[in-house]
Amino acid sequence: MKCKFCSKEAYIKLHYPKTYLCIDHFIEYFERKVQRTIERYKLLRKDEKVLVAISGGKDSAVTAYVLNKLGYNIECLHINLGIGEYSKKSEEFAKRQCDLIGAPLHIVRIKEVLGYGIGEVKTRRPPCSYCGLTKRYIMNKFAYDNNFDAIATGHNLDDEASFLLNNLLHWNTEYLAKGGPLLPGENKFVKKVKPLYELTEREVVAYALAVGLDYIVEECPHARGATTLDMKAILNELEEKRPGTKFTFVRGYLKKRGLFEVEVEKKELRECKICGMPSSGEICAFCRFWGLKEPLTFKVDRDEDNLRGT
Ligand code: Q46
Ligand code: ZN
Ligand code: ZN
Fold first, then answer.
1. Residue 305 has what pLDDT?
2. Is residue 127 within 6 Å of ligand 1 at its C-beta?
3. How far is 6 from 299, CA to CA, in rounded Å?
4. How far apart are CA 145 and CA 41, in angstroms?
5. Burial 39-63 (b: 16+ CB within 10 A, else e)
6. DSSP H or E run through 68
7. SS3 for 126?
8. Residues 128-163: b if buried by 16+ CB within 10 A, e if exposed
């Protein structure tokens, strides 16, 4: 098949709207769509300092690559989770990706700052529960300590659609109130944005391949992603039969999100006694879990030439 816009062979068939595109026109389409998402949802301005959280995987690498190409002022943060070989490999990929992108990379290794890797802590909590807490805290604290205006993550359309479906099936209204491409900053919470919000996972993979971004494909050994994978498989089946399902579902949700917001009580936040970050209790969940007596600080010395290993 030929590209819709030129005489070259098609690189990809887009399902919605059904179009064949050559590699160059696909790259152009993808980048234009990211730019439109940023504008439609007022995610970022060109004068803002953006921290991209990169895991070594495809979505975050593509986010950093495209934002950089579109002229946004980005730096990257990789959190090494201390999960054996998996984390070593992830860090290697993150470094290679940032070399290709030409963006500064900061690395926080949680084993170095907290003493244990994910999965090594003696606790009843499953690794993913305190991993999520730890990643969210470090991302925000790093951005806050270094005066970033926004944190960009690699969530794509499939991630959002499967998150919504799963939370609708369980009527987790609190989570349903918090979806969407933009979580505005408030207090000491830095604004969070998802520039790939309207692009499918398939498009993200095709873009990564098209621009030569290498990424880790192995799953984390703690991943119990069966639910997400089930949701994604169901949505892909629906999409196959009715192209545009995911997009309509997510767009519709954004219109109806207010229904869930009214259900959520606004919690009064105070400052954590240890780290000073917002907390519902006297000590925040992060400091409590890791038993901290002193706050962690991530202030980067800007005179350092090589930002790696901070
Ligand atoms: S939460 Fe769980 Fe992930 Fe952390 S422990 Fe691995 S699978 S990395 S997205
Ligand atoms: Zn073309
Ligand atoms: Zn704290």
1. 46
2. yes
3. 49
4. 26
5. eebebbeeeeebbbbbbbbbbbbbb
6. helix 58-69
7. coil
8. eebbebbbbbbbbbbbbebebbbbbbbbbbbbbbbb
Asked whether the beta carbons of 154 and 117 are under 8 A apart, the reply is no
Mean pLDDT computed over 130-148: 97
Q: Compute, in angstroms, the gap from residue 32 CA to the centroid of ligand 3.
A: 40
pLDDT score of 226 more than 80 = no
Structural domain boundaries in the chain: 38-218+295-300
CATH class name, domain 38-218+295-300: alpha beta
Q: Is the CB of 131 under 6 A from ligand 1?
A: yes
Query: For residue 297, what are its two tokens?
Result: 């600080």
Q: How many whole angstroms separate alpha carbon 4 and alpha carbon 171?
A: 42
**ipTM > 0.85 (yes/no):** yes
Does residue 55 have a known ligand-binding role? yes
CB 283 less than 6 A from any atom of ligand 1: no
58 token code pair: 């495809």
DSSP-derived letter for residue 186 is: B
- Which residue from 12, 5, 6 is spatially nearest to 207, judged by alpha carbons? 12
